Amino acid sequence: MTDGDLNVYFDFPYKPGAFGYTIYDESELDSIKENSLFLFTHKHGDHYSRKLLRQHEGEVYGPWKFSKKEVNGGEIINYPEHSFSVKAYKNKHRFSLSHCSYLITWHGKTIFVSGDAESPETIAKMQNMDWAFVPEWLLYYAKLGDVNIDANWIGIYHLYPNDTVEDDYGNNVVNLRDHQEKITLKF
Fold first, then answer.
1. SS (H, E, C) 2-70
2. Distance between CA 79 and CA 182 in Å, rounded?
3. Which of 33, 45, 129, 168 is the most buried (most CB within 10 A)?
4. pLDDT of residue 157
């Protein structure tokens, strides 16, 4: 994500094809802007690669660096000069002891990144989001539990290359299959 001044990467770089998930062209690693902000939801190979990250300069954040107070809706990043802040929410991911979802406020827009959260419990508490980025299973469990995701747009990610999303979740839901797809938010 970028506003032309601040560059933010979520769960990238990661090991291409880890656990059968998205493979990306290695040239994408060359396009990472230096002195960026890297924010990770957890350390699994399909979300994080220490080896690939070492090749780039910038600030790195992840749940392994936060205190209990910070991961319960506390602000972990605040760059007033960029109108950018991030709140962290600890949630369960059965294969990770340390996992967070994030609520980003940037130029007055709110963006939620769920990572591999298992249940819609955290996102159900968020209101008036511009975008929510969630795996398909989180959207499925929200619908199953009659949980409203209060977002103008919902982006489904974390799909296997041949996955299809069969359910009709509504007109504001976008399948983010193309790794290089661009989403523009006006501020």
1. ECCCCEEEECCCCCCCHHHCCCCCCHHHHCCCCCEEEECCCCCCCCCCHHHHCCCCEEEECHHHCCCCC
2. 24
3. 129
4. 84
The CA-based dihedral angle spanning residues 14, 15, 20, 26, taken in that order and rounded to the nearest 10 degrees: 100
Q: What phi and psi, each to the nearest 5 degrees, are found at residue 140?
A: -60, -50
Measured from the Cβ of residue 72, the count of other Cβ atoms closer than 10 Å reads 12
In this prediction, residue 180 carries a pLDDT of: 65
Exposure on the CB side of residue 80, measured as CA atoms within 13 A = 0
pTM of the shown model:
0.90
Neighbours of 91 (CB within 10 A): 21
Note the pLDDT of residue 138: 92
Residue numbers of the chain with a pLDDT score lower than 50: none
CA distance 13 to 47: 7
